Amino acid sequence: EMDKAKQGGDRPTPRSSTAMAAINEHRLVAFGGTQDEDDDDDMESEFLDEMNFYDTKTNRWFPAVVKTPFF
């Protein structure tokens, strides 16, 4: 039986269809996804472009900070 790890940090909102990849031994990067709202007659999807990191050693989320290149 597996135990559910308690996650900390700045967790991203719940979503589906997120792309996720390992970038080293203990860090994952998650990008994008969709948030779906479904009522009886219609379904709307919001496509997300956020990038977040997850550290598997500390069980913490944190947002990626992308800086504009300086020219």
Question: Main attributes?
Answer:
single chain; 71 residues; mainly beta; five-stranded mixed β-sheet; 5 strands
Short note summarizing the structure:
By secondary structure, the chain is mainly β.
Per DSSP E runs of 2 or more residues, the count of β-strands stands at: 5
Report low-confidence residues grouped into runs of 5 or more.
Answer: none
Could you give the order of strands across the largest sheet?
Answer: 1-5-4-3-2
Q: Class by helix and strand content?
A: mainly beta
The 3D shape can be described as flat
Order of helices and strands: EEEEE
Question: What this model shows, in words?
Answer:
This protein is mainly β. It has no helices and 5 strands. The protein has strands at about 10, 20, 25-40, 45-55, 60-65. Strands 1-5-4-3-2 form a 5-stranded mixed β-sheet, with no helix packed on it. A hairpin with a 4-residue loop joins β4 and β5 (about 60-65). It starts with 7 loop residues before the first strand and ends in an 8-residue tail after the last strand.
Secondary structure: elements and pairs:
Blueprint: E1 8-9, E2 19-22, E3 27-38, E4 43-55, E5 60-63
Parallel strand pairs: 1-5
Antiparallel strand pairs: 2-3, 3-4, 4-5
